[in-house]
């Protein structure tokens, strides 16, 4: 049985993961509105990954005998000044999520909750990839600028992204 402190913290993380999905869907809609469908595709795939993350926490909490409680999801931002601005926000957001995961790990260690420590290691590793991916796109956008062939080529590249379940399960 999971303790109440850990249960509360994981419920808050479920909310944070669902907010992330909501944010990335909002970004997808922004990119659709400016005809960057490859960027929009990248964001839709990212939103799917965030839902998988939320469900991984959800299933873990249930498996440990905890109670999942769904919290309100705040409305995300809906417009950005540029593709670079949006991806800078993605990178900052992923850094925030990394901090949340680290806080969960710190709590699990303090509570001597070894099962949660084990489960959270996957998320610690996942956040390295999430930050790296966002930062790489930020750097590419800085190189190509906001207009012209470079942005078109990057849009084409991001349009090739396909959903692969980060947990290794079929979704």
What is the strand and helix layout of this fold?
Elements (H helix, E strand, L loop, with lengths): L3 H30 L3 H27 L19 H28 L3 H31 L4 H10 L13
Helix pairs in contact: 1-2, 1-3, 2-5, 3-4, 4-5
Report what the structure shows.
The chain has 171 residues and is mainly α. Helices cover 74% and strands 0% of the residues. The protein contains five helices and no strands. It starts with a helix and ends in a 13-residue tail after the last helix. The model has no long low-confidence stretch (mean pLDDT 95).
Essential attributes:
elongated, 5 helices, 0% strand, 171 residues, mainly alpha, Ferritin, single chain
> How would the global form be characterised?
elongated
CATH topology: Ferritin
CATH class: Mainly Alpha
Low-confidence segments: none
Tally of individual domains? 1
Oligomerization state of this entry?
single chain
> How is the biggest beta sheet arranged?
none
By CATH's scheme, which homologous superfamily applies? Ferritin, core subunit, four-helix bundle
DSSP summary, beta strand count: 0
Summarize the helix and strand pattern as letters. Answer: HHHHH
Give the % helix.
over 70%
Structural class: mainly alpha
Strand content: under 5%
Estimate the mean pLDDT confidence. Answer: 95
By DSSP (H or I, 4+ residues per run), the number of helices equals 5
